[in-house]
Design goal:
Its EC number is 2.7.6.3. The chain has one domain: 7,8-Dihydro-6-hydroxymethylpterin-pyrophosphokinase HPPK (Alpha-Beta Plaits), CATH 3.30.70.560. About 25% of the residues lie in helices and about 30% in strands. The protein has helices at about 20-30, 70-85, 130-140, 150-155; strands spanning about 5-15, 35-40, 45, 55-65, 105-110, 145, 150, 160-165, 165-169. It is globular and about 45 Å long. The termini are far apart.
């Protein structure tokens, strides 16, 4: 009998065609082997983080059910490959690390596993600091725990504003 993991990934884009980019990312995830796209959160319009001089993002979280053949690092590799196929080019300028992007796909949680491998840190190292990830994660998994603390508690510790489908922080 195969073992399966509940995995959460965040999707984001602030390209001129952001909604379509999220759709293409969801399609790409659904087409990966031994993986099922189980659910997606609503799409939120979110303020940029760490590099403010750029357009707002569209963000959502996707829940995947993955076969045990997937491991956190192999999944991160697949997510990076999807980003490249969808036109993501990473800037070599460290100042633009959090700059504009056609698509961003981050592994947030991989079951209850954790990884300290620099290539695939799980839980995502900034998950508990980002309302744009926690709000849609809670839409899908209201009782989810992150490092032994509920995601709702992590969110309550942040200074952010939510107005309908808009999140600023």
């Amino acid at each position: 009998m195969n073992e399966y993991f509940q995995v959460f990934v965040s999707l984001g884009s602030n390209s001129a065609d952001a909604a379509n980019m999220l759709d293409l990312a969801r399609q790409a995830l659904a087409s990966l082997p031994q993986m099922r796209l189980a659910a997606v959160s609503p799409i939120y319009s979110t303020a940029p983080q760490d590099y403010a001089d750029q357009p707002w993002f569209l963000n959502q979280v996707a829940e995947l059910v993955v076969d045990a053949r997937w491991r956190p690092c192999s999944l991160v590799d697949a997510l990076l490959e999807v980003e490249v196929k969808l036109g993501r080019v990473r800037s070599t300028d460290p100042a633009l690390r959090f700059g504009p992007r056609t698509i961003d796909i981050d592994l947030l949680l991989f079951g209850e596993e954790s990884s300290t491998d620099e290539h695939c840190l799980v839980p995502h190292p900034r998950l508990t600091q980002r309302a744009f990830a926690l709000v849609p994660l809670l839409d899908l998994a209201p009782d989810i725990m992150i490092n032994g603390i509920s995601a709702a508690t992590w969110l309550s510790r942040l200074r952010y504003a939510k107005d309908g489908q808009r999140i600023s922080q």
